[in-house]
Design goal:
The complex is a heterodimer of chains A (about 160) and B (about 775). Chain A has about 160 residues and is of the alpha+beta class. Chain A contains five helices and five strands. Helix content of chain B is about 25%, strand content about 20%. In chain B, helix 8 crosses helix 22, helix 11 crosses helix 13 and helix 11 packs parallel to helix 15. The chains are: A alpha+beta (about 160), B alpha/beta (about 775). At the A-B interface, strand 2 of A face loops of B.
Chain lengths: ~160, ~775
């Protein structure tokens, strides 16, 4: 029986017509493709994009150099050096994230006791050389300063689930 | 023995021991903070509450004696509820600053809070805050708010260090650990409080914010400082030593180390480290490659050997060098035909050389000290020279032992001293002779005719008689000679009389080793009277200046018995080769500086004062171009065509040096063929009493910044007792001029009743006093 079916399929083009029917259906369905630079998909407030370092409202950097993010980072992308600042507080003297190593797992953000390191919604950043994606502390703080409004809004939205 | 049951396990434990001890035996962990096996029981943290059947309430395991048939549950509902309750109380006032706390990651409170703490606090009121107080350069109390009042630090001070420098003031919520008003913690064992603190209330100041515990590699090592050979864990981050903590070894350092062992690591990262080989040409230092530097040294030594003979070359090594380095140095020297090699830099009496039954050592295993009930300690700045041996003696005293001191300074040993005879250095021998005389008459023993003849005319002083009486009453007696006695110009006489005393009362007789390899140096044959070629000792090579000196980590102006003479010899020499880890004054007189690795950067062996050989590996790579000294000496041996220099590891060197040797057979404190002598007349002039302050004693501690800021590192003062001050018309604080030989120094004078009349105490090992001359002898003091 199967053999007879297969024999007729060889010249009746049933499969082809089935496939064309599916194509034809999608030709008239609503389009979901996004024209990226002009159009954007909606993002979750939990989106994990480019990293940023935050400050408190008084301008003081949040990071206390506890190195939990460095310890938890599965890609070993974070490098921190710490020293005592003149006022006796514990501060980082170096805080680098190598974004070419980073896998955007969000563990750093998760482990941070003071919400200093966060991942923002930014995804369209680039570097022209390899080293361009090695983000240092001033670069991360600059990202944070620029997008603080959005960052704090996102944290607030997520806070009830934490 | 009694039987108890813990969590269903039957354990046999000694009568009088606690549930905690029994649990330890049964391998059951009971959470605790204030309990520490080496400290007394306080039972004030209450964390170790356990359920005992038939007891109405939970009982603290650390303070409840085990009783026959007792049934203990450490994880029953009742016990866990009690422990969780206690944890909640402890956390009420504990700040939530683990992320910035140096203890984070190795904190007992943090660990136990995971098991017994709540997810959130029910405490919404204000937390207690304690304002930080300064207690010195080594320990930070900046975050005293973290304290949980376990009082381990207080008990450590009282019981182990012998001085209560921290105490708990006020009550209940206001209770806080503090030092006495405006005073710092100066104990030479203070660093152990940092280890003892179960939270981050007492932290290491030099280590503050340097690293988190999980970033560190822990590598085992052995202390290069005093003769004890404390076991260390060197903590390394990024190929840099950032911290040193003890490794427990009950036979040696128990679980303690001295501050010297703990904080000297700062010198390893000091800016003064020598990083490249240097040659002096035309008065200027130029950095060269190793090959060029070693060729230069080899050529220089070859030329001197040819023109003036090998005996015109001398090698001096620090007793803090490793066994392998000392062995290779003497092998190299003997290979080129010179026996002038020595490591006993501060010794001045060498008359026993070749007459000893073996290598001078402690005379017993270190742990036996605790069991002695009578001590005679002669010529020792015990507490500062041997902090942990002093601690053991302190424990013995606590259990009823009596300590008698014969010395030239009455420093506070932080333990009750039964009898002491404080005499001028010149009277040390006669004082020991008096003790011998008194002891012989008490014991009614007849001494040899030679000694009897010497003792006849001697009047026994009260102190000597009391010491003799104390020793005579002992069951297990120890007679120990300190660094001062070994450096004394009549060291051999002191040792001979001490040996006689020890024989009379059946005592163990021993020498407290000054440095890490005080015993190892002899076994390595780095002494002029051993091996195939004999030569001159450390004093003779300076008195009869040689043409070339090979210095292995020696700073002659600070490490030698007579720095004045040493400097002159160095300056007049044709060639001085400094193998050193640091840039030092050698830059003035040396011709070649070779950067060698300190003990953390090389493998090697230290043989401690009790004859235990402890080998260790390098904890970090040598800094820059520095190289382990055994490698440098090995290549030098090749360049000079000395045979048998084909080692490929320091272990090979050690195995060759110790081949067929049982160390214990080589140890021996008896000296034979020494003619007894007692000089009773004292010189009219003031005699110098010299100590080597604890943080000036070797190249490493001298460059450890934090140690150098402590009170023990103050610029040396001239110490005189009040009657001498009056005689000289001086007052404490006056600027004075002291003259010894042909050099003088400007210092301030201090009153010290511990210095005997006729003596003046001036420290060595510091640039301010380096030019004065020999450690013993007469000295003039006058107003500047």
């Amino acid at each position: 029986m199967e053999k007879i079916k297969d024999f007729f399929k060889t010249f009746l083009l049933v499969e082809l017509l089935k496939g064309m029917a599916l194509t034809g259906r999608y030709m008239f369905a609503r389009k979901i493709t996004v024209q990226f630079p002009e159009e954007k998909t909606p993002q979750s407030y939990r989106f994990r994009g480019l990293h940023a370092q935050r400050r408190y409202e008084n301008g003081e950097e949040r990071c206390i150099g506890c190195k939990l993010c460095e310890a938890v980072c599965p890609a070993l992308a974070i490098k921190i050096e710490v020293a005592e600042r003149a006022d006796g507080t514990r501060r980082t003297t170096q805080y680098d994230i190598d974004l070419t190593k980073c896998i955007f797992c969000g563990f750093c953000e998760e482990s941070c006791p003071v919400d200093a390191i966060v991942e923002t919604r930014i995804l369209e950043y680039h570097g022209e050389k390899r080293g361009d994606l090695y983000y240092t502390k001033p670069m991360l703080l600059a990202v944070g300063d620029k997008y603080e409004a959005q960052i704090s809004k996102d944290r607030l939205a997520d806070s009830k689930y934490r | 023995m009694i039987n108890i049951e813990i969590d269903g396990k039957l354990v046999e434990t000694a009568k009088g021991s606690t549930i905690m001890d029994a649990a330890h035996k049964a391998d059951v962990y009971i959470p605790h903070f204030c309990y520490h096996k080496k400290l007394s029981i306080a039972a004030n943290c209450r964390m170790c509450l356990v359920e005992v059947e038939k007891a109405p309430k939970p009982l603290p395991a650390c303070a409840t004696p085990a009783a026959e048939g007792m049934k203990v549950h450490t994880h029953s509902d009742m016990a866990v509820k009690a422990q969780k309750g206690i944890m909640e109380f402890l956390l009420i006032n504990h700040p939530l600053d683990c992320p910035i706390c140096d203890q984070g990651g190795e904190c007992q409170l943090q660990d136990l809070a995971v098991g017994y703490g709540g997810g959130a606090s029910r405490y919404n009121e204000e937390k207690r805050v304690i304002h930080p107080k300064e207690i010195g350069e080594l320990i930070s109390t900046h975050e005293m708010s973290r304290c949980i009042q376990c009082t381990r630090c207080v008990r450590f001070g009282q019981e182990i260090a012998g001085i209560m420098e921290l105490g708990m003031a006020n009550r209940s919520e206001h209770a806080e650990i503090m030092s006495f008003v405006n005073s710092s913690v100066d104990s030479e064992l203070s660093g152990n409080m940092i280890d003892l603190c179960p939270v981050g209330a007492l932290t290491s100041k030099p280590f503050r914010y340097k690293a988190r515990s999980w970033e560190l590699s822990r590598r085992k090592s052995v202390s290069s400082h005093d003769g004890l050979g404390s076991n260390l864990a060197v903590h390394v981050k990024d190929n840099k030593v950032v911290r040193v903590v003890p490794v427990e070894n009950d036979a040696i350092n128990e679980c303690w180390i001295s501050d010297k062992d703990r904080f000297s690591y700062e010198a390893l990262n000091s800016a003064e480290r020598l990083t490249r080989p240097m040659i002096k040409q035309g008065g200027n230092w130029i950095e060269v490659e190793w090959v060029a530097a070693l060729e230069y040294v080899a050529n220089g030594l070859r030329q001197i050997t040819q023109s003036a003979g090998a005996e015109n070359i001398a090698a001096l090594a620090t007793p803090h060098a490793t066994f392998e380095e000392l062995y290779l140095l003497q092998k190299l020297m003997r290979g080129i035909g010179s026996g002038n090699v020595d490591f006993r830099l501060r010794q001045s009496d060498f008359s026993a050389d070749g007459k000893q039954s073996g290598t001078p050592w402690l005379g017993m295993p270190v742990s036996e000290i605790n069991g002695c009930d009578r001590f005679l300690i002669a010529g020792s700045f015990l507490r500062k020279d041997h902090p942990l041996l002093a601690q053991r003696i302190r424990q013995a005293v606590k259990h009823g032992a009596q300590v008698s001191i014969v010395h030239s300074a009455a420093d506070d040993l932080l333990m009750p001293v039964a009898n002491q005879a404080i005499v001028t250095p010149a009277e040390l021998v006669s004082t020991l002779a008096q003790v011998l005389k008194a002891l012989a008459s008490t014991k009614q023993v007849k001494l040899s005719d030679e000694i009897q003849a010497l003792l006849v005319s001697l009047t026994v002083s009260d102190a000597a008689a009391k010491i003799a009486a104390s020793l005579a009453g002992g069951k297990q007696v120890a007679v120990l000679l300190g660094n001062f006695a070994q450096q004394h110009p009549q060291a051999v006489q002191i040792a001979s009389f001490a040996e006689q005393i020890a024989q009379l009362c059946g005592a163990k007789f021993g020498f407290l080793g000054e440095a890490a390899n005080s015993v190892g140096g002899y076994l390595a044959e780095a002494v002029p009277f051993a091996g195939s070629v004999h030569g001159m000792n450390a004093a003779e090579v300076l008195e009869n200046p040689r043409k070339a000196y090979l210095l292995l980590n020696v700073e002659p102006e600070l490490d030698m018995h007579n720095p004045q003479l040493a400097m002159k010899a160095m300056k007049d020499a044709d060639m001085v080769v400094c193998m050193s880890a640091f840039k030092h004054q050698g830059l003035e007189y040396a011709d070649v500086m070779l950067p060698i690795a300190p003990f953390t950067e090389t493998s090697g062996t230290f043989i401690n004062t009790a004859g235990i050989a402890q080998s260790f590996k390098g904890a970090v790579k040598p800094l820059a171009e520095a190289r382990p000294a055994w490698k440098v000496l090995r290549v030098l041996g090749n360049l000079l065509n000395v045979t048998g220099f084909d080692y490929d590891s320091s272990e090979a060197v050690r195995d060759e040096a110790l081949k067929g040797i049982t160390i214990s057979d080589k140890l021996g404190n008896l000296t034979s063929g020494v003619k007894f002598e007692v000089v009773t007349s004292s010189p009219a002039a003031l005699q110098r009493v010299t100590d080597v302050p604890i943080y000036f004693s070797d190249a490493l501690v001298r460059r450890a910044d934090s140690l150098q800021k402590t009170n023990d590192s103050a610029v040396p003062c001239v110490k005189l007792n009040n009657s001498e001050l009056q005689k000289l018309g001086l007052q404490a604080g006056d600027a004075i001029k002291v003259t010894q030989g042909n050099a003088s120094a400007q210092l301030t004078v201090q009153a010290d009743e511990g210095v005997p009349a006729g003596a003046v105490r001036i420290a060595a090992g510091h640039p301010a006093t380096a030019l004065l001359g020999a450690m013993f002898g007469t000295i003039t003091v006058e107003r500047a």
